[in-house]
Amino acid sequence: MKRGAHYDIAVIGAGASGLLAAISAAQIGPGLRIVIVEKNSEPAKKLYATGNGRCNYMNRFVKPEDFRSAGTEGVPPHAKSLFSGSSAEKMIRFLRELGIEPREEEDGRLYPRSNQAADVVRALLTAVGNAGIEIVCGFDVREISQIEDSCKILSAERDYLYARRVVIATGGKAGIQYGCTGDGYKLAASFGHSVIKPIPALTQLVTRDDISMMVGARVRARIKLLGVMGYGSRLAAEDSGEVQFTRDSLSGICTFNVSRFLRYEEGVSYRAELDLMEEYSDQSVEELLTHRRAGFRNEPVPMLLTGLVPDRVASYISSRAGAKPGRLCASLESSDIKRIARLLKTLSFDITGTKSWKDAQVTCGGVSLSEVDPQSFASARSKYLYLAGELLDVDARCGGFNLSFAFASGMAAGMAAARSL
Q: Which fold has domain 282-347?
């Protein structure tokens, strides 16, 4: 790229949404001059790491109701415009045409058939090259300004270029180690866009409780995230799945899914409750433990839970129930049984927050949807500007939904930008 070069469309960010925006724009306007600028030394750095290097790039069953917005009640209109009807299948076919052959796993999760994220990146970059789209890495955009009928895009190194249309697809702040530092929020704000405070989502819940006894243990549970206010509480979110215990946090997909609902408010603290025997009623758990007490009468109390939960969790519950080491099951009173049963059904932890941006998979919050057209993803603040992907105030649970939105919104923004020219 020559300093001061002129383009029809400039896409800021060479991630999932940015690459799809450029490819889609080139298909609509094959004669358009398109450039992608990326601050990292290589494109798609975060995409390489997605899904532990496997890349769960879409979900076959994606629908509008899978998405949420921190600043919008109900289903985000942008998700409705992207995923109504057969839109998901069309997106899957489009990606197949680019060379991304899907392999479906449980719950409709789509991975590349090779099971390698690198092949998804390779297919997208090949499509970029075939379309004659230029990629400029090491271009850290710091400022976008309108000049007559185009925009001047200035880098941190004072390099610059001009474009008649700009698509901001920089991503959010999740995965800071991949260069995701929220630069796009400042760029959007410079055009007058408002930003809903971004918070880490799809990440672990940090607890102040000492859970070191359970590190490495995994349990099947229903998790509830409760907002505690004074003497009352409200259910913020709940989900079922495998919960994993780390040194200081609760992990696992179901935990990730409720993490987006932890927003700091004055006077509100949070508590997580685990139901380790979701399919049993409170009464049936008591009856089960009472029956087992006779069979394990000469064994230490943790043995009462053998086969119900992992050994480390059994020891933790026994300790929280007040059973001293070496105490035998035969000595358990009815009140002890009730206490242990209650812990199996409502094992609670005080939550102090979530893990950092480095651990988060996605951003909750972002550019307000009220200022972005839900069909074209055009800015309501500038006719030259389009916004797509994780930069926007849209997020979803684990399972390929967030990348589905990144791809689909990038495609919509790129097509709209090209059509406007």
A: Helicase, Ruva Protein; domain 3 (1.10.8)
pLDDT (tens digit per residue) in 84-128: 988 899 999 999 999 999 999 999 999 999 999 999 999 999 999
Q: Which of 135, 101, 115 is nearest to 10 (CA)?
A: 135
CATH code given to domain 6-200+362-419: 3.50.50.60
> pLDDT tens, 224-253?
999 999 888 999 999 999 999 999 999 999
Tell me how far apart the alpha carbons of residues 169 and 142 are, in angstroms, rounded to a whole number: 14
Ordered alpha helix ranges (H), 214-373? 253-259, 282-295, 311-320, 334-345
Structure confidence by residue, pLDDT tens digits, 279-330: 999 999 999 999 999 999 999 999 999 999 999 999 999 999 999 999 999 9
Sign of CA dihedral 186, 187, 190, 196: negative
Buried b (16+ CB within 10 A) or exposed e, 269-290: ebbbbbbbbeebeeeebbebbe
Q: What is the pTM of this model?
A: 0.94
State the span(s) of the chain assigned CATH 3.50.50.60: 6-200+362-419
What amino acid occupies position 193?
Answer: H
Phi, psi of 242 (to 5 degrees): -90, 125
pLDDT (0 to 100) of residue 52: 87
CA 359 – CA 362 distance, rounded (Å): 9
CATH 1.10.8 residue ranges for the chain: 282-347
Residue 367 in contact with residue 391, Cβ under 8 Å? yes
**pLDDT of 231:** 80
Q: How far is CA 375 from CA 34, 306, 350, 364, in A?
A: 22, 55, 42, 21
Residue count (the chain): 421
Q: What mean pLDDT do residues 187-203 have?
A: 97
Exposed/middle/buried for residue 3 (C-beta within 10 Å: 0-12, 13-18, 19+) = exposed
